[in-house]
Design a protein that fits this description.
alpha+beta; five-stranded mixed sheet; 9 strands; about 50% helix; elongated
């Protein structure tokens, strides 16, 4: 044929004195060509039967199945050749990891599941009498030690598990797409294969960010401009890198609860909080702020309508999520912001629902940032007070809440809002709590008064609603992990969320490639 086939040698090292055994190469190539001829004849015969009916779909399936079967056969032949070459280099004896000598025992067949289907290959098995352990040569090099599923299949299943609700659905879809028998893959198998990869990604991410943070806090080689990993920088699109970079970066944080399986059955289930963060650059959007128009008219009587366009995300929104302590989450979110170019931002905006742990992280990692209390959470808090005092079906509750929103909240008048709540009839605290709902709301608005200057924010085009991070919690955790009847153990839940975060951030391929290199 004239084509070089050195790729058939996995090591590139001559196997015997005098060079690579060309006769073995030729034999392997002839075997592959013979299998290809059988495949071509098979396709031709089936295509002839379809010719009269002009069934394009049928022809596609015939060729797809034939190509996959041929690929599986070729893969088995090449692995056989690779294993034979490795054994020739090792000889009948090889050094065992325990320090003893492992001896050639016999040739063993192994069937594995690959993207091409089931593949059987043969490799030499060595056994060490000193430690009693054995090893099939080649398995470790190819990522097949203690497993019968190829690395490529595991990575595919992990990717699909991050995007698809239900492991059984993933199994069914893969079998249907790759033309596999349905019994080749089950939902439980998909889960067992996907979760370890998610766990490895979590460990790698934690270790990498921790190492970077340690250097930064020690004042060594880290700086605000240092990206923790090349993979993290891939979130920025080519357009974002070449065009003028926006001046304003948004950082949003929130918590979302997921159900965790207890050790004593369903009655022992409990809920754990995932902290979720979103980072994105902003640009002027297409939505004009009504508040900005009002402010402009008030400043100059008879002036033309002032239009300020409210910010919207420019480029990708990237996420950080973890069932971890707030301090650890803060470091990971800060690392994400640095990776997205935090040092280039002239303004940083932190939007939140008002949780105390969020503002503490904002002060620690984003000092000087504009802190904004999410307008919709504040609005919801007013309605909660009204319902607690008069009941949800009360007309008086509706009238009072709408008046407070219009007269105080929209104007950013936290003091007036607190005063209005203080005048409400006294009610008892909820069971197990020391303060009533109105008292809790007064404390909430007092603590966040400096984060409620909504007319000023809108006049500058700032977003005042944390819709991005609210949807992030649902997108990263809720959609995939909070469906009806879903119950997780903590390790499995963390693994799937890590996989999903990498997929949504468009870093999955680079991250698993790094894992392969480290293996």
């Amino acid at each position: 044929m004239g084509y070089p086939i050195r790729w058939l040698n996995p090591t590139g090292i001559p196997h015997r004195k005098g060079g690579y055994p060309m006769r073995e190469q030729a034999q392997l190539l002839e075997q592959m060509l013979a299998e290809a001829r059988v495949c071509v004849n098979h396709v031709g015969e089936k295509a002839a039967k379809l010719q009269e009916r002009q069934s394009l779909i049928g022809l596609e399936f015939v060729i797809l199945e034939a190509v996959l079967q041929l690929g599986a056969t070729w893969l088995g032949l090449i692995l056989d050749s690779w294993a034979k070459n490795l054994a020739a280099e090792a000889g009948t004896r090889r050094r065992c990891q325990c320090g003893g000598v492992a001896r050639w025992v016999k040739v063993r067949a192994k069937t594995i599941l690959t993207l091409l289907g089931r593949v059987t290959y043969h490799r030499v098995y060595y056994h060490c009498q000193q430690c009693g352990q054995g090893e099939a040569i080649g398995d470790r090099q190819w990522g097949l030690e203690h497993t019968r599923t190829s690395r490529a299949v595991k990575e595919l299943l992990a990717y699909l598990s991050a995007n698809t609700v239900g492991f059984a659905v993933v199994a069914k879809d893969v079998c249907r797409t790759l033309r596999w028998p349905a019994n080749w893959l089950s939902g439980k198998q998909v889960q067992r294969l996907a979760e370890p990869l998610g766990k490895s990604l979590t460990e790698a991410e934690v270790a990498r960010v921790a190492g970077w943070w340690a250097k930064l806090t020690a004042g060594l080689s880290a700086s605000l401009g240092e990206v923790p990993s090349p993979a993290m920088a891939q979130a920025e699109t080519p357009q974002e890198q070449t065009e003028t970079v926006p001046e304003r970066m948004y950082v949003q944080m929130d918590g979302i609860f997921a159900r965790v399986r207890g050790k004593e059955g369903k009655g022992s289930d409990f809920w754990r909080e995932f902290k979720v963060g979103a980072v994105f650059w902003a640009e002027a959007g297409q939505h004009a702020s009504k508040l900005a128009e009002l402010v402009g008219k008030a400043k100059v009587a008879g002036a033309e309508t002032v239009r300020v366009w409210v910010d919207r995300p420019k480029g990708p929104v990237t996420y950080v999520a973890g069932m971890i302590l707030a301090a650890d989450f803060g470091v990971r979110l800060y690392a994400e912001a640095v990776a997205r170019g935090l040092e280039r931002a002239k303004e940083v905006v932190v939007l939140s629902d008002g949780a105390i742990w969020i503002w503490k992280l904002a002060e620690e990692h984003f000092p000087g940032a504009i802190q904004i209390l999410d307008f919709w959470h504040a609005k919801e808090r007013i309605w909660t007070v009204a319902y607690a005092v008069w009941g949800q079906s009360s007309t008086k509750a509706k009238k009072w809440a709408e008046a407070q929103i219009e007269n105080h909240l929209v104007q950013g008048d936290a003091a007036g809002l607190v005063a209005a709540i203080g005048k409400l009839p006294k009610i008892a605290p909820p069971p197990g709590q020391k303060k009533s709902i109105p008292e809790q709301a007064m404390e909430y608005f007092q603590n966040n008064a400096e984060r409620m200057h909504y007319p000023e924010y809108r006049a500058r085009g700032l977003e005042i609603g944390s819709g991005v991070v609210e949807s992030s919690g649902r997108r990263v955790v809720g959609y995939r992990c909070k469906g009806p009847g879903m119950r997780w153990n903590e390790e499995g839940l963390t693994a799937i969320v890590e996989l999903r975060t990498h997929v949504l951030n468009n870093r999955y391929d680079s991250a698993v490639a790094n894992l392969r290199e480290a293996a």
